[in-house]
Write a structure and sequence with these properties.
With 311 residues, the protein is an alpha/beta fold. The protein has a single domain, classed as UDP-N-acetylmuramoyl-L-alanine:D-glutamate ligase, CATH 3.40.1190.20. The protein is 32% helix and 27% strand. It has helices at 42-52, 67-78, 125-128, 142-154, 171-176, 184-190, 207-215, 258-271, 276-290, 303-310, and strands at residues 5-9, 13-20, 32-40, 56-64, 82-89, 94-101, 106-111, 131-136, 158-162, 179-183, 220-224, 230-234, 242-245. The protein has a 9-stranded mixed β-sheet, with helices on both faces. A 4-stranded mixed β-sheet has the order 3-2-6-7. Helix 5 links the parallel strand 9 (158-162) and strand 10. It is globular. The relative contact order is 0.16.
């Protein structure tokens, strides 16, 4: 696959995952059915997902000088990701504590650790030179995300911002964002509580949201709907300002990192020259396949697996 470079800037976490029949209620203690420590973190996950799909990926981040940092560097490098710009620091590697129930649903709490040391000065413009896509999320400081977006914009790259974990963004970051990736809940929060159409709604029902995003300076939005697929909102496309992407039906085992698989796959296909709708169709398959195995990075599919599912 001929592809431009992808730069992913942000978080690397060790995922401390416990499996259980169902998620506990507040104040409740349950017996688990298994425990694992796996490589994760939204940015590391997105980098690995893109790398496994043939993307040329450079990751910018920070990990501790501890076994979890070793694990993360080995996992990302093993997917073909350039980790030469991931710093080792005198802080513990970030962690995510994850509970996964039998249905595959999860709950997650993260502690930043070394991720909190990633700073605007780490966004060396030379690293972004020649990039086709810059992939960002909100697990590091807003100032760092903004600096990475500016570096990507200055390099002529498509800036793909995954608005997760949800936080409001300022006008400066919105102006630098070429593609916003959100789920339905995040979209509603971003638009001031505006109700999103149901998964069964006709595509015309999404036109109001398309307009609202455009008024906030975001002309292209990729909105995921979980098992119901996704929708591409593009106010620059007068012929099809909203396009529904059908879901890929699988039996989910663990949804941890599925959204990151979707983001990484989108970045990989955009870097290869796909339209946003085509990239979303590819990403839908990659994310679905990622839920059929336990864990995040280890569950991400190869390009051959995605091609087989598409074909």
């Amino acid at each position: 696959m001929t592809t431009k470079k992808i730069v992913v800037a942000g978080s690397l976490n060790a995922d401390l995952t416990i499996y259980c029949q169902r998620l506990p209620l507040p104040g409740e203690t349950l017996h688990g059915s298994g425990f694992a420590v796996n490589p994760g973190g939204k940015s590391a996950n997105q980098a690995v997902a893109a790398g496994k799909l043939g993307g040329r990926v450079t990751l910018i981040g920070a990990v501790g000088s501890d076994p979890n940092g070793d694990m993360l560097l080995a996992s990302t490098a093993g997917a073909g990701v350039d980790v030469g710009h991931v710093r080792r620091v005198d802080e513990p590697t970030g962690v995510a504590v994850i509970s996964v129930e039998d249905s595959g649903e999860n709950s997650i709490i993260i502690s930043a650790g070394a991720n909190a040391t990633l700073a605007p000065d780490d966004m060396d413009p030379a690293v972004f030179k020649g990039a086709g896509v810059v992939c960002l999320c909100l697990e590091v400081s807003p100032e760092t995300v903004l600096a990475a977006a500016q570096a990507g914009h200055d390099a002529g790259a498509t800036v793909l911002l995954n608005l997760s974990p949800y936080a409001p963004i300022d006008d400066a970051l919105a102006r630098l964002t070429d593609v916003l990736l959100v789920n339905s809940h995040e979209a509603s929060q971003f638009l001031g509580g505006m109700a999103m159409p149901s998964a069964e709604a006709p595509v015309s029902d999404w036109l109001a949201a398309t307009k609202e995003f455009a008024e906030r300076g975001l002309s292209k939005v990729l909105l995921t709907l979980g098992a119901a697929g996704s929708v591409v909102l593009d106010s620059t496309n007068t012929a099809e300002p909203a396009v529904r992407i059908a879901p890929t039906n699988v039996v989910a085992v663990d949804t941890t990192g599925a959204g990151d698989a979707f983001t990484g796959a989108t970045a990989a296909r955009l870097a290869a020259g796909d339209t946003l709708a085509a990239a979303a169709r590819h990403a839908s398959v990659a994310a679905a396949l990622a839920t059929t195995k336990k864990g995040a990075q280890a569950a991400y599919p190869s390009e051959a697996e995605v091609a087989a599912a598409l074909g």
